[in-house]
Each structure stands twice: as structure tokens, then as C-alpha cells.
Amino acid sequence: MKALIQRVKSANVAVNGVVISSIERGLCVLIDSYCPNSIRKLLNVKIFDDDNNIKWKATVVDKQYELLCVSQFTLYNTWKGNRPDFHNAMPAEKSRVFYETFVQGLKEAYEPEKIKDGAFGEYMQVSIQNDGPVTFEIESPAHINKNNKRMGVQVVPQVDLDKEDELSVNEK
Length: 172
Description:
Blueprint: E1 2-15, E2 18-23, E3 26-31, H1 36-44, H2 60-63, E4 66-71, E5 78-80, E6 83-85, H3 92-109, E7 115-117, E8 124-139, E9 149-150, E10 153-154, E11 158-159, E12 169-170
Helix pairs in contact: 1-3
């Protein structure tokens, strides 16, 4: 599983020029696939200021904010020269099941009306107003090899999906 989490003031997804989902403050999550710990991590990551304006103390749940989830297979790209290659991405049929399971799991774990999503497999336009800007990448450890490389690209610090309470960044 790999996801980019962006703290946003607002975000929306359009297909063929028609907005199909939108949120106000919250998180825009671009996700390649799903692992069970990702839901817990996403809902518990301390990415917002608390009510006393102390940074990195409140979760999306604490603030009662919304989440906009967008399927994005391009997160698992590699490069062949100057061209992106997507052979590491999950096949569409399998990925659809994982994505739908992820969105449903978020709805069950939080408030269903606060979970919005894009249109799987469609050509979408995603508009965000990034708040900060704040953007984090999370990736399940299974996708990182022993040499700290991901298809020849140096691995950036990753969020540990097995930690429950704090946003834990591991220098891999």
C-alpha cells in the first residue's frame, strides 16, 4: 500500500468537467492500494493543530473533518529513461476491490458522510487547496526492500503503519 496524504482547506474531484465529490477541511488521500493498518493510521495521524493551536496534536477524527480518497495507480511508478513505467502497480481488477474495501473500511471506522471518493478508473481532475502545505507519504513496509531502494530510487522516510498513536517516521 502506498498513499499520499495532503492536509487541505478544500478539495474536489471532477469527471468530464462535473464535480462528483468535494470536501472542506480535512485530508485528500491519493492511494494506490490498501492494507488493513492504513485505515487506522490515516484516522490517527496527528496532522492538525489542536484547539490550543499546538501543531501536530489533532487527528482528522478529533477535528471532525472530512476525507477525500482518490485511487491513483501512478504512485507505484518506476522510470525507464524519461518515461514512467507502471509494471509495479496492482492490476486494475484487483486494485478496484482493494480500493473499494479501503473506502468502505473508512466509512465503517469513522462517519460515513465524511468519507468521499473519486471514480475508480476514470480520468479525473483533482483540485486541492493544500493547507500548509502539508503532504505525507505512507507506504507499507512490504514494498520496501532490504537495501532501502525502491526500483533504483532512494527511499524517502516512511510512516510506520504498525505504530498506533504517534506519527512515526522511520529513516529506512
